[in-house]
Design goal:
48% strand, two-stranded antiparallel ribbon, globular, mainly beta, 140 residues, seven-stranded antiparallel beta sheet
């Protein structure tokens, strides 16, 4: 059975469950911007060597193995024993038996109130972004 673990080096980063601000794709990776409880801070998760991205409505998501102590974590979690990574690896072998790109992949999950973002990638880096209040709104 898959099991969620908090990504240890990011355990200090928590976010608002309604806080998904943006998901941006570029050729060098995927960036997920997340609002924190403090409106002055936004977190930027930068995933590199991305193999797949999946965004699911929370009502349609199977939380088996994703809950920690029977509740959603307000942190980035990694799924050990991920069936999604196994399925992606099997598909890759069908198309390119010699490829090893999935061997380093990790299954990351960010669960929000309305949606769940999953990313299969080699690594993730996170940085806080300090916002400033201009013209009645918070901006970078």
């Amino acid at each position: 059975m898959p099991k969620a673990v908090v990504v240890q080096d990011l355990s200090r980063v928590t976010f608002d469950h309604g806080g998904l601000a943006a998901v941006t794709y570029s050729p060098d990776g995927v960036v997920v911007s997340v609002r924190e409880d403090d409106p002055r801070t936004r977190w930027r998760y930068r995933f590199v060597n991305v193999q797949a991205v999946r965004i699911t409505a929370s009502d349609c998501f199977d939380y088996t193995g994703v809950l920690i102590d029977n509740k959603l974590s307000r942190r980035l979690v990694e799924i050990a024993g991920s069936s999604w990574l196994k399925a992606l690896s099997a598909e890759l072998r069908e198309h390119d038996a010699g490829s090893t790109s999935m061997e380093k992949s990790r299954h990351f999950v960010l669960a929000f109130h309305d949606q769940v973002v999953e990313i299969a990638a080699w690594q993730v880096d996170v940085e806080p972004v300090q916002l400033r209040f201009v013209g009645g709104q918070w901006i970078e």
